[in-house]
C-alpha cells in the first residue's frame, strides 16, 4: 500500500483567472474567475449548453484555454493527469473488457504499482463504494448505479487532489440517484478531495455543495452567482433554509433559461 | 442411435444454432439436394452429375487419398498465409490508425495495392518465390493483410473518445493508451476483418492453385477437366464450401471462447 497511501489525500486548490474557452472560433465561456478552495465541494449549476462541461474539460486538461490562467495547487494545467480524477456522466467511460476489480486497478497499474498491492488497494476502494459483491463482474453485468460506483472507485484509488464530476448521477433513476448522492456525501467527508461537480439538478447541488456557482446562458457564458450553502451534513432538504436557497437558485436559473429561449425566439407562451 | 443423436448434438454446437433453426437449415439443404437430383435427371453426367454420382466420386477420391491430400494442401496454405496476414495486418492497422505520420507514410501503398487482385501477382510470386508453397502462402498473406489492416484502422478511429479521456485522466501515457485502450477496442473490427479475409483466402487459393500448383482443391478442380470428370469438379466445389463454413465456425467458436470480454459480435 506504501506508494498509494503515501500520496497526500488532501484536496488542492483550483484557481481560474480570466478564463475564456473557444470552440471553432466561437466563445463558449468568457472571462471566468473562480477559485475552489482545497477540500471544498463546489457545484456548477446552469442550463444545458451553457458551457459547464467545457469548463470542467478545461480543468481536466482535455481542452485548452483561449485566454486566462488555470492552476491546480499553484501549478498551471497542462493536459490530463492523475491528480485530477474525472467521473463521467456516461458509464461508457468504464472499460467494458475489464472487470470492476480490473477497472479500479487501472490507475495504479499505469504507474507500475505491483499486482498484489494494487489488488489490495482496489478491494479497499471497491468496498468503500459498496461493490465488493460485484468485483469480478463486467460493467455490462451491472446496473447504472453500480457502474457509477465503479467509476467513482476507479477515480478515488488514484487519490486525486481534485475530483471532477460531470452530471455523474444524471442518467440514474430518482431512487438510485438519492442513494448515490448520500454515498458521495459520505465518501467526500471521509476522503476530502476538492470536488467540482456539474449538475442541472438544484436539489442535488444544495444537498452536496459548500458553494453553488451558477452560470449565464451561453454562448460566451459567464459566472452569474456564487452562493454558499451553510447547512450541516448530512443535509435535510425539507428544512426552510434549504427551501429558501432552492427558491433563489431556481429563480436565477429560470431567468437564464428564459433568456436562451428568447434568443432562439421560442419564448411565446412562456413569457407571460 | 446414440451416435446419431450425438452427431446431431455436435452439428448443433458447431453451427451454434438453436434446435428449431438448425432443423430449418437442414430441411433447406435437403430441399436443395432434391432439386439438384431432379434437375440432373434431364442432363448428361458431363453437363450436370447427380448428387449420387458426386457422392460416389467423393468416396472414390477419399479412398485413393486424392481428396484428403487436396484438402490438406489447400488448408495448410490458407492457414499459414492467413495467420501471417492477421499477425502483420493487425499491428500495422493499429499503428496507421493511431499515428497520423505512419498513416500518411503508408496510405499511398495501401490505396494502390488494395485494388489489385492478389491473383494478378501469381506470376511474380512464382518468379520471385519459386513454384513451391511459399508463393501461394505469401499470396494469401497479401490478400489478408489489407483487409485486416483496413478494418483495424476503422476500429482505431472509432475508439470511444470518452475511454481515451478516462485513460488519460487515470494517468495512462500515450503508449499505454495504445496498448490498454485502443488495442482492446479494436479487437472486434480486427475479427471482422480476419473473417472476411478468410473468405477471400479461399478465393485466392483456388485461383492460385489453378494457375500454379499440382496439389490442392483448385488443382483438383482444374485437372478434372482433362478427364471429363464434371463430378470431380462438383466434389471440389462442395468441399470448398464446407471447408470455408467450418473454418469460419472454428474462428467464431475460438473468438466466443477467448475474446468474449471484447464484445466481439459473431
What's this entry about, in short?
The complex is a heterodimer of chains A (272) and B (266). With 272 residues, chain A is of the alpha/beta class.
The CATH topology label of one domain in chain A is Rossmann fold
User: Helix- and strand-based class of chain B?
Assistant: mainly alpha
CATH class label of one domain in chain A: Alpha Beta
Q: What is the top-level CATH class of chain B?
A: Mainly Alpha
Q: Low-confidence spans of chain B: pLDDT under 50, at least 5 residues?
A: none
Summing up helix and strand content along with how strands pair, one would put the structural category of chain A as alpha/beta
Average pLDDT score of chain A: 88
CATH architecture of chain B: Orthogonal Bundle
How many helices of chain B? 11
Largest interface: A-B, 28 and 19 residues
Q: Helix count of chain A, per DSSP? A: 8
